[in-house]
Specification:
The complex is a heterodimer of chains A (about 170) and B (about 270). Chain A has two domains: about 80 residues, 2-Layer Sandwich (GMP Synthetase, Chain A, domain 3), CATH 3.30.300; about 55 residues, no CATH class. Chain A is about 20% helix and about 20% strand. Chain B is built from eleven helices and two strands; from the N terminus they run ααααββααααααα. In chain B, a hairpin with a 7-residue loop joins strand 1 and strand 2. Chain B has about 270 residues and is an all-alpha fold. Chain B has one domain: Ferritin, core subunit, four-helix bundle (Ferritin). In chain B, helix 2 runs antiparallel to helix 6 and helix 5 packs antiparallel against helix 6. Classes of the chains: A alpha/beta (about 170), B mainly alpha (about 270). At the A-B interface, loops of A face helix 2 and helix 6 of B.
């Protein structure tokens, strides 16, 4: 009798850990908190993902990379990736490992707190100084802001806080 | 009570689609106008900021077109690029050109107009989005919740420009006041639902336009009071974009933005 290979969720998650953000090689889609669900029916795998920002042009690339990576898992025959907006992605979904990965890339992880007027503070990812200024709340991608460290004189980026309070 | 597409009557679905077209076309056209500013904004940080906002806004239009696709109204690309001006439901305000000239040649765009249009529109969008978070159509409520998080930053951005320019030199104030006049002349249909007010109400898709209009006026009043200028009043529209009534400026926009699409409509962009 034909016995399909069992696909383990653990193997899928391990494979997802290998799918990097297309621009930030030190964080994976798992680290970023973009994976909402994994469903396995025999050899069919369905992944539900949350877009960080709705207009992010990297979403299609990420989707393609996820499909390719999951297809390489033993026993997987078909992969489906669905983007959903509920629950909405928020920046507190970034894991601790993701925060470290961002920092290693020179991007400050998103602040956990911000005040009612929308202002927030992060430290310099290079020297740890708190003496920084916000140059532009908007940055080179939808999810990042541009800052400057007055201590080590480096420009740097930070992940924008995105929260349910907004 | 929330509804899903399966249990909807034809009248219900038609009302929902009408609302989605209004929302999608508004964001789509305004983000197109925003993209024409690329490389022309007053300084490089603003170029980064306003193009990022335009990209977010295009993403919002895509979500609404996506909901229409799910309802069986056609593919996203065709809905965005393939519809004629008279099929468009956007307000007149968002189709207006950025100023004199053409962006490929000698654009003499008006930044004061960009600031006022974007600020007043973003505030209106915020009022609508807050209402849409409570819509009976759950997929739309979910999109609204997500849009709201991005809009938070757009709103702060345009409000900052608005208040700073109106607290600046006499020339800035004069140009801003002229821009306010221009924007308000086209604002009449922003809070219009065209012929669909009754059906939006019947299916509890979004609150009454009069209520939203009052919220917009109240929110703006707080800001303009501090700047010692008169509160802008929304007039009845001469022409209503929600009814497919548009200017030649929309024709020109569509002919430019759909140029590549029309080369081969079967290719996904």
């Amino acid at each position: 009798m034909y016995q399909p290979t069992l696909v383990a969720e653990k193997d899928i998650m391990e494979a997802l850990e290998l799918v990097q953000d297309p621009e930030i090689s030190t964080v994976s889609v798992v680290d970023l908190g973009m994976i909402e669900g994994v469903e396995i029916h025999d050899s069919h795998v369905s992944i539900t993902m949350l877009p960080t920002f709705l207009g992010c042009p990297a979403l299609e690339i990420i989707k393609k990379n996820v499909v390719e990576q999951i297809q390489s898992v033993a026993g997987v025959e078909a992969v489906e990736v669905l983007f959903k907006t509920a629950p909405p992605w928020t920046s507190d979904r970034i894991t601790e490992k993701g925060q470290k990965g961002l920092k290693a890339f020179g991007i400050a992880p998103p602040p956990k707190h911000f005040t009612e007027d929308g202002s927030w503070h992060v430290d310099c990812p290079y020297c740890g100084s708190t003496y920084v200024t916000l140059d532009n709340i908007f940055g080179p991608t939808a999810c990042r802001s541009i800052l400057y460290c007055k201590s080590c004189k480096n420009p740097f980026e930070a992940m924008k806080p995105i929260s349910n309070l907004m | 009570m929330s509804t899903n597409a399966v249990e909807m009557t034809p009248a219900h679905k038609e009302a929902l689609a009408e609302l989605l077209f209004q929302l999608a076309d508004d964001d789509f056209l305004l983000s197109y106008r925003g993209s024409e500013w690329l490389g022309l904004a007053p300084h490089i940080e603003e170029d980064v900021a306003s193009s990022s906002i335009s990209q977010d806004t295009m993403g919002h239009a895509k979500m609404y077109f996506g909901l229409l696709e799910e309802l069986g109204y056609g593919k996203i690309d065709d809905l965005a690029h393939g519809r004629s001006a008279k099929e468009r439901k956007n307000s007149i305000l968002v189709e207006r050109e950025n100023g004199a000239g053409y962006y490929m040649e000698t654009p003499r765009y008006d930044w004061a107009y960009a600031v006022v249009r974007n600020y007043f529109y973003t505030l209106a969008k915020k009022v609508k989005i807050d209402s849409l978070k409570k819509t009976t159509y759950q997929p739309l409520a979910e999109v609204a919740t997500k849009v709201s998080m991005e809009l938070f930053y757009h709103h702060i951005h345009w409000r900052t420009w608005f208040t700073q320019l109106l607290s600046s030199s006499d020339e800035a104030k004069e140009r801003m006041n002229k821009a306010i006049e221009g924007v308000m002349a086209d604002f009449g249909d922003v809070f219009s639902y065209g012929n669909a007010s009754q059906s939006f109400k019947e299916f509890a898709l979004i609150e009454d336009a009069t209520v939203l209009k009052q919220r917009w006026e109240a929110a703006l009043e707080e800001v303009v009071k501090a700047l010692h200028i008169e509160s802008p009043i929304i007039q009845q529209p001469d022409r209503n974009g929600r009814l497919g009534e548009h200017t030649e400026e929309l024709d020109r926009a569509l002919s430019t933005l759909s140029e590549v699409y029309r080369l081969n409509p079967s290719v996904p962009w």
